[in-house]
Amino acid sequence: MGTLNLAEFNSHLDQFITLNNGSSREKWTLHKSDAGLYAKQSVMVKWKEESINRQAHITYNSTYQVPVLWFNFYRRGGDPLSSDEVLSLSCTINPQSTLSSNPSRSCPSDPSTSSVTLNEHPHLGVLFYHLHPCQTPAIMREMTGKGNYIASWLSFYGRPLGLSVPLSSFPGSSLPSLPLSPSTSSEQPLDDGANHENHMEEAIDIEDALSAMEDESGRGQTSSSTLTDSSLPSSHSPTTRSLDDTRTEGFSQRSIHEDRNENTVQP
Amino acid sequence: MQFVPICTFVDASFWSEVNRRKLNEWKLEESSKPVGASISIYDSIGTDSRLSLSNESFLGTAAVKGQFLLLNTVESFTKLDRKELMNAEAEGIWESIVSGRWMDHPASLNTFIFTLFADLKKFRYHYWNCMPVLLTDLSLIDQPVEIVDEESRALLSHLDQSQQSVFVYCNGVILPLTHLPSLQSDDYEIVVADPSTTPSVAGWLCRNVILAVLWTTKRNKVRLISLRGGQPSWRFNIGVSSPVSSRPSKVVGWERNEKNEQKPSSVDLSKQFHPHKLMEQAVDLNVSLIKWRLVPQLETTKFSQLKCLLLGAGTLGCNVARSLIGWGVRTITFVDNGIVSYSNPVRQSLSEFDDAQNGRKKADVAASALRRIFPSIDANAIDMTIPMPGHTVDENAVSSIDSSVSLLHSLIASHDAIFLLLDSREARWLPTLIASTIGKLCFSVALGFDNYVVIRHGVTVDGVIEKKEDVTSLRGLVNASQLGCYFCSDVTAPGNSMAERTLDQQCTVARPGLSQIASGLAVELLASVVQHSDPLRAPAWNGESIHTGEEETGLLGAAPHQIRGYVSRFNSMTPCVRRFEKCIACGPAMREAFRERGSSLVISACNSPRILEEISGLDLLQASVDDIQIDVSDDDF
């Protein structure tokens, strides 16, 4: 199932929230605006000694017929973290870690994070980051396992943000397996201190389950389960990774983006 | 007894809603309006009790109710009688306790007053929230006790189902608050959904509940459960020095700000809401997307800090500027002496009919159009005529040439990249010479009817011309100081070309798309050079290099010396021409002469272009090759 129609989205979202809220401490709530239904989660996370508010929203994109993950991080008064700060939350969406002095440290083009864009939230009209949905249908088509679409989708797209998806969100133990080898996406972006203790159980469960599925499919790579804020993935050998590799990946990415103009920001 | 204070978190979506309602609905209306906030007992991070305001705060659906006071001036916000406001709110809370209404509506115990001054021009918000509590002298009878998980879970599940934030828990049975007065034994606990995130310390929302229970039961102690979802819940056994018989007189509640002062908070959200800032961010982000997705090593500040001087604000100047701002260039200066004519607007992408009708200056028109397109740009216009060899200067005009030369010199010195987008060959001479003398990046673009050329001039840094490279093969890198300028392939000095009709002169009869093509290439060539690790020394490949990607000398790939295109055949080539020792614009002799003589050299050249050939040594060269009869034409490129 690569895509969802609006009715399916609404019902899967509703079901996901019920399943999630039954066991996860990170609650989702359902909201309605003139633009339709969306889900919202607002939790506190620790970021460099600071307690900040992480907002994650799930909306429907009718062009691609898939859910879209929107997020932002706010300080107390509503002042958001800067783009650089947001991107520093995760290596995979953080080009800062790929300094020119060391081109071997290029981040792999993980589709869940290579498409981060700042744009107007479709329901709220304020600036939010989102993960562009252009690759979602293809990724979701590759996902095996039935069950709740939103849960499968979020288990992939929510990882760079540290969004946990409890096992109970996958009814009938039909866990999804990931089509790609997200060699770095298990990296927890936030040093969320006490949060670890509370979520460790869930986090480990889903990690184990997912990496088990990856291993079965023979496509898995070692996923780091250490939860750090800045450690870099060692997914590519520095000696073999050259500038040309990066560029090749880059250009293949571009060809995907070129047929839609929506990946650029036009607030 | 300690309590964890309230900490108000305001979403950007709340401010956005305030902006909208203030402009469309409330306008200057200052009266109190109902507002709502939400709490979460699932937080596990932080040390406060979080109260959240969002875009839904004005819908009347939120669990925690309050009043919203939006003042029109900062003075009225500052002078607000906050003590009186808090006391009035406390009176309502006390009334709810005394009447017993709180047992049906426990939310009436914890209400808030959100006061705000919003500067909607600067998108600065000054706010101060208050959640009043009536103080009683409470103390802990025992140490707080952590609650086992299963018990906590049962209470949480009741909370989820009933949506009652306060209820009674008696011997494993959950009862509504209304049963409180009729309970005989002391064997009950009051459960409060508590957003406190500090272990063993109850949250602010418990305080008025404790008071209400004490007053209603007329006892001097109460057992309380602070129910939390994000971390363990806690049991408290609380005593009061004497039973509550009347309204406590002391009230507190004005929140401390992020500096832990009992003062208003301020937040600047211009980046979120100010249209100019939004566009700045979006423009930067567009460039950053290239970095994030395609070229991680791209240094975007190399564009945002680059100062570009555009000599010529015609079709080429307009199109080069439009491409530059796409790369995030923020500083552009146009130099032109012309006014917009009726033929211009259809080709010059920054001018309009109106500009021609009013005879506005090209440079001004281009700069102000850029500012309309992107208000944060630093665009400037200089109205000047560039002194040109062969364009005779009479005695009276000498001082104006002096000032033109010194102005042009200071403009070139104060910019990082110079674009020669002029319509005649001789107009390029002086800027080429000055840029070469100072050692600036310099790009020439010229158009024919259906062909174009883009050249990046050779750059000499600190007067050092590197040795010719070791040419072991025909192809190889050519150092930037070895590259030619626009004039290096010429073997005559530029003269008045009005009669000769050079290629440049025909630009108004160029195929219309040519300007966009050539301007775009010039800017992309600049981009490649600028992203090179050492832009001033970025080498070019000698000759055509279309094999194996070897031409990629920098981050963005190749930075050829020249791009020559032929639209009649829709092809282009990237030749490399080495500097010409006796060049009349960038040759060492000419540079030396300019350093020594300055504008007097320029005036001499204006009156007698032949001196350029004498100074550069070109005349000797020409004499020596006269026999060979090389046929040289400006059109032949």
TrEMBL record, chain A:
Highest taxon of the lineage: Eukaryota
Keyword Transport tagged: yes
Name of the featured protein: Atg-10
Gene designation: WBGene00273945
Feature: compositional bias, Low complexity: 103-115, 173-188, 222-241
Compositional bias (Basic and acidic residues): 255-267
Pfam families reported in the protein's UniProt record: Autophagy_act_C
InterPro entries: Atg3/Atg10
GO molecular function (one): ubiquitin-like protein transferase activity
Biological processes, Gene Ontology terms: autophagosome assembly; glycophagy; nucleophagy; protein transport
Residue span of region Disordered: 96-116, 173-195, 210-267
From TrEMBL, chain B:
Domain THIF-type NAD/FAD binding fold: 290-537
InterPro entries, per the entry: Atg7, Atg7_N, Atg7_N_1, Atg7_N_2, ThiF/MoeB/HesA, ThiF_NAD_FAD-bd, Ubiquitin-activating_enz
Subcellular location field: Cytoplasm; Preautophagosomal structure
Entry keywords, A to Z: Autophagy, Cytoplasm, Protein transport, Transport, Ubl conjugation pathway
Active site feature: 507 (glycyl thioester intermediate)
Single GO cellular component term: phagophore assembly site
Keyword Cytoplasm among UniProt keywords: yes
UniProt GO MF annotations: Atg12 activating enzyme activity; Atg8 activating enzyme activity
Gene3D superfamilies found in the cross-reference section: NAD(P)-binding Rossmann-like Domain, Ubiquitin-like modifier-activating enzyme ATG7 C-terminal domain, Ubiquitin-like modifier-activating enzyme ATG7 N-terminal domain
Protein's GO biological process: autophagosome assembly; cellular response to nitrogen starvation; dauer larval development; determination of adult lifespan; embryo development ending in birth or egg hatching; mitophagy; piecemeal microautophagy of the nucleus; positive regulation of autophagosome assembly
Limits of the Ubiquitin-like modifier-activating enzyme Atg7 N-terminal domain: 1-271
Classification via SUPFAM superfamilies: Activating enzymes of the ubiquitin-like proteins
Summary of the function given for this chain in its UniProt record: E1-like activating enzyme involved in the 2 ubiquitin-like systems required for autophagy.
NCBIfam families linked to this entry: E1_like_apg7
PANTHER family, A to Z: UBIQUITIN-ACTIVATING ENZYME E1, UBIQUITIN-LIKE MODIFIER-ACTIVATING ENZYME ATG7
Subunit structure: Homodimer.
Family statement: Belongs to the ATG7 family.
Protein name: Ubiquitin-like modifier-activating enzyme ATG7
